[in-house]
């Protein structure tokens, strides 16, 4: 698995894919947080990173499928997936190697944004008058959110040989799982606590819960469960080609 992981990381950074992904993520967020009116921190009048954590998931919805769309689609299209399957590695090791390589790229993209936290911390009056617990919880939630989107993107890449199709389907599934259940719950077609249960099926509910500064094991288990489900889906999709 480590050999697959290392090969994927080298491919990310030997080409422009890794650098473009990180630069686009930081540039777009920087413009929204510090430059654009109505969303920049200075217009809020108080020290917060709410705009950062409101915008970042939507950037991930498009950015992560763009990173993962080539994971298996390129291998299938070029025929190297058959060559890879003859190596002394299991399908799960191949999947996890590619998964953790993309996860490392997302972590590297998130890491420089701690500068935003330090800046807001110093700009607060008095210094340090920020919701540190809420911000750190939101960072954990954002990392888990990126981890789920990677699992979805890799699955979409495993079911097609066309990278554009993998990207479009990945964006749709990420958007649907992140927001759709919350909108369905707002329709009021369910009775009583059922609305809450439907909303809790979506990623946004658990991401928002972490943003309150409490790392609940139920939220962590939810994220890990969704990741596991899509990794199993990916393994099934790859195994079906051999069948």
Walk me through this protein's architecture:
The chain contains 13 helices and no strands. By secondary structure, the chain is an all-alpha fold. It has one domain. Helix 7 runs antiparallel to helix 9 (132-158), helix 9 runs antiparallel to helix 12 (203-210) and helix 12 (203-210) runs antiparallel to helix 13. The radius of gyration is 19 Å and the shape is globular. The two termini are 23 Å apart. The model has no long low-confidence stretch (mean pLDDT 86).
What is the gist of this entry?
With 243 residues, the chain is mainly alpha-helical. It has helices spanning 2-14, 17-35, 41-44, 50-68, 73-78, 80-85, 91-110, 114-123, 132-158, 163-186, 194-199, 203-210, 217-242. It is 77% helix and 0% strand.
What is this structure's SSE topology?
Layout: H1 2-14, H2 17-35, H3 41-44, H4 50-68, H5 73-78, H6 80-85, H7 91-110, H8 114-123, H9 132-158, H10 163-186, H11 194-199, H12 203-210, H13 217-242
Helix pairs in contact: 1-7, 2-4, 2-7, 4-9, 4-10, 7-9, 7-13, 9-10, 9-12, 9-13, 12-13
Give the end-to-end Cα distance, rounded to a whole number of Å.
Answer: 23 Å
Order of helical and strand elements? HHHHHHHHHHHHH
- Overall geometry comes to globular
The tally of helices reads 13
Please state the average pLDDT score.
Answer: 86
Give a short account of the largest sheet. none
Q: Give the helix proportion (percent range).
A: over 70%
Q: Count the beta strands.
A: 0
The figure for the number of domains is: 1
Overall SS class: mainly alpha
Indicate the low-confidence ranges by residue numbers. Answer: none
Strand content: under 5%
Rg over CA atoms: 19 Å
Oligomer: single chain
